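Example S7 (structure tokens).
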């Protein structure tokens, strides 16, 4: 019987060793799976952080670009207001010329037409009192141009517009591109 007992104990020992080996193997596999899962989780976390960083960087660039565009547009608007004010002030200054200044301007323009006969001068309503007949060799029209300063010269159906508002507008169209180029 002791042989049977010894064989049984050996078999039990052998089974215990097999079970222990299986347990060690299962523990090793579990540790490897856990390490692999932790590594995968760390990799996924790093990728998500990179994705967040990229998204934040893109958002920052968009916001920065939007802010720069807003700032540029505000500056452009201020410069446009300043330009409008310059032209408005120029018109105001011309409309406020005294009789001598207006007469000098008129005579300078008439010098360009000294060879022309039968010129008719139509004054703007705001300029009527600033003209004297002295030195003027043109026919002065009885009509005036309402609410305007300056004058129109008529030569056989052709009108030469020297109304200050229109002169400023024409000048504005000519110089705005170069001024814009320099200012903006």
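Recovered sequence:
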């Amino acid at each position: 019987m002791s042989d049977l007992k010894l064989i049984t104990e050996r078999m039990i020992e052998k089974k215990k060793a097999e079970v222990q080996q299986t347990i060690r193997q299962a523990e090793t596999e579990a540790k490897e799976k856990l390490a692999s899962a932790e590594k995968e989780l760390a990799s996924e976390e790093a990728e998500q952080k990179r994705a967040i960083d990229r998204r934040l960087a893109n958002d920052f660039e968009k916001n920065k670009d939007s802010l720069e565009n807003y700032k540029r547009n505000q500056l452009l608007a201020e410069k446009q207001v300043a330009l409008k004010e310059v032209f408005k002030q120029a018109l105001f200054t011309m409309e406020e010329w005294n009789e001598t200044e207006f007469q000098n301007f008129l005579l300078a323009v008439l010098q360009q037409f000294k060879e022309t006969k039968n010129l008719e001068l139509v004054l703007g309503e705001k300029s009527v009192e600033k003209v004297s007949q002295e030195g003027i060799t043109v026919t002065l029209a009885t009509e005036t141009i309402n609410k305007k300063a300056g004058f129109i010269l008529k030569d056989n159906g052709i009108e030469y517009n020297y109304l200050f508002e229109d002169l400023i507008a024409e000048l504005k169209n000519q110089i705005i591109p170069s001024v814009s180029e320099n200012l903006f």
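Notes on this example. The chain has two domains: 1-96, 97-183.
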